[in-house]
Amino acid sequence: MDLQLKDKIIVVTGGAKGIGKGIAIALAEEGAIPVVIGRKMVDNAIVVDEIKAKGGDAFAIEAELTKPEECGRAVNEVLEHFGRIDGLVNNAGLNDGVSLEHGSYETFINGLHNSLIHYYLMAHYTLPSLKKHKGTILNISSKTAETGQGGTSAYAASNGARNALTREWAVELLPYNIRVNAIVVAECATPQYDSWIQTLENPVETLKKITDRIPLEQRMTTTAEIAAMAVFLLSPKSSHTTGQLIHVDGGYVHLDRAVGSGI
């Protein structure tokens, strides 16, 4: 199926690793030009080189998106280089471990800057070009907004806001034919997830307990599976889909997690 993404300029925040990297690669495979925005150029460049080695095209910009001025600069660099932006994937974030009991104002606000504030700023700064080219916005969100996790107040709050903003922006941007959707992720195999698992006392045992509770096939979602939904939602093939929170999670959130687990 031709997703009609050839030569579309799609900004992907946090595009150097994990889900963002998977989306950038999938976009390039469809002929789009992903702009990988991340805090380390060396990491960004690895993804760009991988894409180009396979015959695709990509561009990289180093930016620390927790700094508001860096969001504006990054968008300006994209526009200076390409002259347009056709899509935005808000993906960068961090499950930060800010608890209610032991957290603080400072850590909570820092957590919001890590995982939420730049979602608004990147959408705000890209909007003029998105309006001009009838672009799309895709927010990557997390099941923590719906299920809770414990000990991660800023991240859970950020994801609740990501979901709300998806529908808020979808309504606001209807006059411009700009579609806004979100993919809600549960347990996805990424380097960040693996690093978190390794901090626990019994990582192998804990990971098995988690996967046993994922209804479909008792396994982690892959970044490629998230990316496949992402490119569809960014493409004209999903032309009448907006304001949706789409769960790519093997049924984790909405199905009984005891199904198939023997519980």
Tell how many strands the DSSP assignment holds. 7
Radius of gyration: 18 Å
Question: Low-confidence stretches at least 5 residues in length (pLDDT < 50)?
Answer: none
The description of the largest β-sheet is: 7 strands, parallel
Tell me the series of helices and strands, N- to C-terminal: EHEHEHEHEHHEHHHE
Bin the strand percentage: 5-15%
Q: What is the residue-mean pLDDT, rounded to a whole number?
A: 93
CATH architecture: 3-Layer(aba) Sandwich
In total, how many domains does the architecture comprise? 1
Using brief descriptors, characterize the structure shown.
9 helices; seven-stranded parallel β-sheet; Rossmann fold; alpha/beta; 263 residues; globular; 47% helix
Give the SSE layout.
Blueprint: E1 9-13, H1 18-29, E2 33-38, H2 41-53, E3 59-62, H3 68-82, E4 87-90, H4 105-133, E5 136-142, H5 144-147, H6 153-172, E6 179-185, H7 191-198, H8 203-212, H9 223-234, E7 245-248
Parallel strand pairs: 1-2, 1-4, 2-3, 4-5, 5-6, 6-7
Helix pairs in contact: 1-9, 3-4, 4-6
Q: What is the compact description of this entry?
A:
The chain has 263 residues and is an alpha/beta fold. The chain contains 9 helices and 7 strands; from the N terminus they run βαβαβαβαβααβαααβ. The relative contact order is 0.14.
Q: Could you explain how this protein is built, in words?
A:
This protein is of the alpha/beta class. It has a single domain, classed as 3-Layer(aba) Sandwich (Rossmann fold). The chain contains nine helices and seven strands. The protein has helices spanning 18-29, 41-53, 68-82, 105-133, 144-147, 153-172, 191-198, 203-212, 223-234; strands at 9-13, 33-38, 59-62, 87-90, 136-142, 179-185, 245-248. A seven-stranded parallel β-sheet has the order 3-2-1-4-5-6-7, sandwiched between helices. α4 (105-133) runs parallel beside α6. The radius of gyration is 18 Å and the shape is globular. The mean pLDDT is 93.
